[in-house]
UniProtKB/TrEMBL annotation:
Keyword Ribosomal protein belongs to the record: no
Protein name: Glutaredoxin-like protein
Family that this chain belongs to: Belongs to the glutaredoxin family.
Keywords: Electron transport, Transport
Family matches, as PANTHER family: GLUTAREDOXIN-LIKE PROTEIN C5ORF63 HOMOLOG
Record bears the keyword ATP-binding: no
Length: 102
């Protein structure tokens, strides 16, 4: 991504070098984000989830880009989906990732 800015990570869960990174751009009091995190629980140990709070000063870039779009997801640093978890798309990306590792 041209001119990409590294996000300030809010929290990171179960970091493992053999798992892909799924980044969730979020903020407090975001019901769609909470719903999305519930859906992600159906994918245990499939990825490392990093949450980025777009409202922190360090994440001004992401706030400007995504303030009306959250939740937004990046898979391995690339935009994947927004508003809701597309289970089919996420499953496809995970399958591709793990197939390439074999």
């Amino acid at each position: 991504m041209k001119g990409a800015v590294s996000p300030q990570i809010l929290c990171s869960r179960s970091i493992s070098s053999d798992r892909p990174i799924l980044t969730l751009y979020t903020k407090e009091n975001c019901s769609l984000c909470d719903d999305a995190k519930e859906v992600l629980q159906d994918f245990p140990n499939k990825f490392t989830l990093e949450e980025v709070d777009i409202t922190t000063p360090e994440n001004k870039h992401w706030y400007k880009q995504y303030r009306y779009e959250i939740p937004v997801f990046h898979f391995q640093g690339q935009f994947l989906m927004k508003h809701r978890v597309d289970v089919k798309l996420l499953t496809q990306k995970l399958d591709e990732y793990y197939s390439a590792m074999k």
